[in-house]
Amino acid sequence: MNQDNTRDAQWRVALRNAKTAKDRSATPRVVMPQLQPDYRVTCNEEVNQGLSAEQALLEASRCLDCPDPQCMQGCPVAVNIPGFIKNVERGEFLEAAAVLKNTSALPAVCGRVCPQEKQCESRCIYNKMKKAPVAIGYLERFAADYERMERAAHPVEVKRPESNGIKIAVVGSGPAGLSFAGDMIKRGYEVTVYEALHEIGGVLKYGIPEFRLPNSVVEAEIDGLRALGVDFVKDCVVGKTLSYDDLHAMGYRGIFVASGAGLPRFMGIPGENLIGVMSSNEYLTRINLMGAGRPGEDTPVLKGHRVAVIGGGNTAMDSVRTARRQGAEAMIVYRRSEAEMPARIEEVEHAKEEGVQFMTLCNPTEYLADEHGRIRAMKIQRMELGEPDESGRRSPQPIPGAIEEIPVDLAIVSVGVSPNPLIPNAITDLEISRRGTIVVNEETMKSSLDDLYAGGDIVRGGATVILAMGDGRRAAASMHEALSK
Asked: Strands 357-360 and 231-233: what pairing?
């Protein structure tokens, strides 16, 4: 359809005039339907069930269609937020999805896993009015899901962009790589994405559990890119299977590295090499990507009866909630207070509803072994909050003498990740930071090599899906500009 979606479009003006701002702001924010906690810990079904059409229409009517929409300033991929929401309000759900897809390659993913409360929704005018912001994430998910169902029921032939004959290689099929690939294919480039693992999707597949982001949703977004003409090559480790020089020999004029941060970090405390101490990366990859714990799958994974997950981010919540679904009594061990947790508020609430214990202001200092070299307990140092550090968060300080021993038979360490060192080590003359990230110009995402751009966690360390997608979009725009010259 692609109609006029600007604020001055006649239909938008009429829609604004159809309801007073007072009426709009008097409507309470919609509540997302979700599965009951006692049921959801027995399965991997998606917890958030999505809005009905009636709920979506009502929630979209709350949007005041501001003349200077601050919500867009909070979006790393610059989605036309009022444009898509107003289309939802008038019942043009496919047009709403089209507006989303103008700037976002993965709206059904972002609607589920973006931290909207820290980004678009944090800038909503309703916050100043001391009211709940418009549920932008819920509406994004609704429009993207509606389009997916419609396309499944009534397939339409996708018109491929006309090729300009220029070949581009993408390393890694996570959010940065997919976002970049989507933008480049639309500009007419011939795009091939190389993925080291046996499934496309990167962290969207191995890192995020199905109860938060179903694989079928990720697959549908990838199929959309395939339909546009993006080629995907699995089981190919760039830096080993293919070198930087090989890619040049194959005729690629530009390379975008989005190989992520798959190297887990540990704390360097005694006992980390015991059986039963593992990284969240390994734990989630075994279960999410390799089917561990599912009937008929033979990938092994340690189950644990009392599981401790160390950390307070989204990956820690994903790990601890996964452990609950594996039948364990599970706890979060975090050295600051709950207020400082970087995890999404919704994730923390879901974990609590599912029976996860929270041991905040606690820091593990040692893992203790049984006679078989397996973890049987961990020593915990109780902490208190001191002065704020450089990031503005209050630094945890140990309370002298406050050490206790807690029985556990599986510890999952989720204290951050480092960039995959393979590519930085494999390419000479590529500028690398002290942290092992690829150094880029933040405006263009261009590295120290003319034809190599990079984005996502290989540049940022560990960050969010939406920031990675923003990197992919910026890199695509600047590589296109450079190649057009």
From this structure: unpaired
Q: For 398, how many CA atoms within 13 A lie in the half-sphere containing its CB?
A: 10
Cα angle 251, 255, 257 (rounded to 5 degrees) comes to 145
Q: Which of 398, 408, 183, 392 is nearest to 310 (CA)?
A: 408
Q: For 121, which DSSP code?
A: G
∠ CA 313-462-433 to the nearest 5 degrees? 145
Asked if residues 1 and 101 have their Cβ atoms less than 8 Å apart, the reply is no
Average pLDDT, the chain: 95
Residue type at position 213: L
Query: Among candidates 298, 361, 350, which has minimal Cα distance to 322?
Result: 350
Q: Are 325 and 355 in contact (CB under 8 A)?
A: no
Name the pairing type of β-strands 329-334 and 357-360: parallel
Distances (CA, A) of 200 to 20, 218, 231, 447, 464: 47, 9, 11, 25, 18
Q: State the pLDDT confidence band at 39, using cuts at 50, 70 and 90.
A: very high
- Indicate the helix (H) or strand (E) that contains 410: strand 410-413
362-369 sheet: strands from edge to edge: 362-369, 375-388, 394-407
Q: What is the 3-state secondary structure (H, E, C) of 174-223?
A: CHHHHHHHHHHHHCCCEEEEECCCCCCCCHHHHCCCCCCCCHHHHHHHHH
Q: At 432, is the secondary structure helix, strand, or coil?
A: strand
**Lookup: tokens for 151:** 């396309």
Distance CA 113, CA 420 (A): 23
Quick one: what percent of the chain has pLDDT higher than 90? 90
Tokens of 82: 């009022």
Instruction: Tell me what pLDDT residue 315 has.
Output: 96
Cβ atoms of 156 and 178 within 8 Å: the answer is no
